[in-house]
């Protein structure tokens, strides 16, 4: 049988030919999207060097103690930060404020560190920012001391560069982990009104490429200026769109809400170590640090010398293509560009049909087969991870070892695409499969371009490339199938190059729990290579159809070659087997390997809960919060008699394993409130309460009665705080204060109800009582605390008469 290049190719060779562009595109794409290689201290002086920035980071981290807002360790980090700024010749300013964030119902005292670089006396300000506080469970090296060090190093470069068009300021915010409180407080600082653009450095993991994952709305000029400066400007408007749909926030959220333009950088691989004790120097990727620093410096230089007096309006669709290259266009161009590409495919279809290379039924079959393949790919991918979770007790059995499950998900998605060819190859032919697959791509691109244009950049880029290749192949009057095969090979490789590394980025950010959408992406890419698995149909050119009746039969002329269905399907079946076997092996390995490991441990946090009523300790119990969900480790389960998870705290939906314990003698009295005044105003009761806390304290929680849903809640005498007004819509009637920020403060409640009022006042203290040593020892190394870490929670129910 004549194969792709006009000579005989065995079925196994055509199967290999169909899989090669996918593998080649993925490998090259991974190389192109890897983080930058670390540079040593001897790097050119005008580039960011992790070798020069690492000592700064090490000095800032100090002994590696966690440093949540309000802690003594955080004050020590702040002192070291001030020393670094002073060493650069700057004059740091400390902004002390009490701030509240209504969206999170969080308050606290913060100390922001602000510095201004010498330069123009007036004009727009470029703000370089990162937060210097950490969660209580870990030292926060990646989140966000790397960002702090990157901003410091960028400032050193800007000082060495000399003259700038715009003013540049540095903000090292406090209390980001406590609810973006430092960013909130900064918006009350006079400098905030002069800021035109913000460059924010963040992290949601400990390794991976630094991604520009978020921007403000009118982002065309932001992306263009940054891409012109950055050596590896890895970004995508799809990432921006996905992030907009997620309930995640950083300090940039507050600045965007205030109408300030900005960009946000983060690396997201290694989420298993995020917000744990292992977010330390030992687990930091120097390549990620290098890439993060390059991006912050590039953005700083770009905006420091941009025309910020009247930034142009308009958003963009954009995607990283290769080092130094970002493809971008105005966001309004998305539908027209998708239409142009679709018209190109239509023209290719008409030319191929006119020359008898494809039938309309073959094209329709190719489209339906591709649609079925993509849907089947998503179902198989979701089914693989769902079955893994069903067969294993762990909530995410691929937590520590995602590679085997990833092989299963991707392999099954590719198998779905290959099997679709085996069903329709005989009647669709190569051109039918090709144009059918790309018609599906065009439909998807047009739909996304109209509904979510920011998410269409990658689809558009690949579709335009493929439409051009196939139009050329259809118009070129080819001798033999070589041009068609080349067009299919290159377009499939291009799709894999652009989309498959992005699928890995989405997996890093969202996890394999979203295997269904990941399988859809892989399946969509795989369908573009399936035409290479089919044989070549020998259609009679349409211009000769009218002459058929007049032709004189030639008894010695052999009929056109029309391979049988079995021979056509053989290559597709071989390709299906070649992808299904690794998928099944990967699934088997995923069933066998440990779900958690010392390098990638599970998050398991313990709480000692004391429940008080009217000053009397009435109950004590152990709580355990596990992420991912699933049974407790056997060693931990053996320490106490755990009960099944349940939501036990009135302000939280978290489900805790719990175990009753004998209430020991209280080490100190419970947290309490003092009634400062109790007055009636019309049909409202106005209560003023003074809050007190113990030391040290990570946070306090005031749970108000449901009657406060339409009432006023505000702190007295705190001009820097955002009042909880009548229309604030407190979602849980709860106010959380980080650190000792609410100690001694008076809060005013305007209640519509009369009579006794029952409130809950609780405080969270770091660490466990001595009896908790058995639990922490049983946790060992395959699990670590996260977020607030192991704590003692003292919950006091109080009835105010």
Description of the molecule:
The chain has 801 residues and is of the alpha+beta class. The protein is 41% helix and 20% strand. It has helices spanning 11-32, 50-61, 72-87, 141-161, 181-186, 220-229, 237-245, 251-257, 286-304, 334-354, 360-391, 402-451, 457-475, 482-510, 515-527, 565-592, 634-637, 773-779; strands at residues 93-101, 106-116, 125-131, 167-173, 195-201, 211-215, 261-266, 316-322, 325-330, 602-613, 616-627, 643-647, 655-661, 673-681, 684-691, 699-703, 713-715, 734-738, 746-751, 757-766, 783-784, 791-800. The chain has a 16-stranded mixed β-sheet that branches. Strands 14-15-19-17 form a four-stranded antiparallel β-sheet, with no helix packed on it. Helix 11 packs antiparallel against helix 15. The longest helix is centred in the middle third of the chain and has 50 residues, at 402-451. The radius of gyration is 31 Å and the shape is globular. Mean pLDDT is 89; it is low at 1-7, 537-567 and 725-732.
Keywords:
801 residues, alpha+beta, four-stranded antiparallel beta sheet, 22 strands, disordered N terminus
